[in-house]
Design a protein that fits this description.
Elements: H1 4-24, H2 37-53, H3 61-93, H4 100-118, H5 121-144
Helix pairs in contact: 1-2, 1-5, 2-3, 3-4, 3-5
Keywords: Membrane, Transmembrane, Transmembrane helix
Protein name: TrgA family protein
Transmembrane segments: 65-85, 123-142
Length: 146
């Protein structure tokens, strides 16, 4: 059932994911060919905001902060996983791997490599502040517009 809190969480975490993606783009090599990287991540943030934080709104302010941080972390992990999985599939079509286990292990290695690459102070602070503010704003919307 759509609610104002779900809509607010979806929009806020979609915007946060897009903004962080724009911060992260310069950290990747020129040859990465990111394409619609920010838009895909915004879509993931939108879904995570709706499904994780939006359905739990109307709680305490402390829980709002915790759910906001959880949504920011979940968005980060899901985007890392999906982009690593996509890269693995692209490499598997070029027959880079000897078998399926090597391909699956490479997904985890790509997640770790990309996670370390984006683990800068600017990105971490943006995720933390955005998660807290997104959580508090969603809670405010849930209390005032439900």
């Amino acid at each position: 059932m759509p609610t104002s809190a779900k809509l607010a969480a979806a929009v806020l975490f979609g915007v946060l994911a897009w903004f962080v993606s724009e911060l992260v783009k310069p950290l990747f090599p020129e040859s990465s060919g990111l394409g619609r990287f920010s838009e895909y991540n915004a879509l993931i943030g939108l879904v995570i905001g709706w499904r994780i934080w939006g359905r739990r709104a109307r709680t305490t302010w402390a829980n709002a902060v915790a759910y906001g941080l959880t949504s920011a972390l979940a968005t980060t992990l899901v985007t890392l996983f999906l982009h690593s999985l996509g890269r693995m599939v692209a490499q598997s079509f070029r027959r880079v791997y000897d078998g399926p286990m090597e391909a699956l292990v490479d997904v985890a290695q790509l997640m770790i490599k990309n996670g370390q690459m984006i683990l800068t102070q600017e990105v971490v602070v943006t995720l933390l502040v955005g998660g807290v503010l997104g959580g508090l704003a969603t809670e405010w919307v849930a209390r005032n517009y439900s």
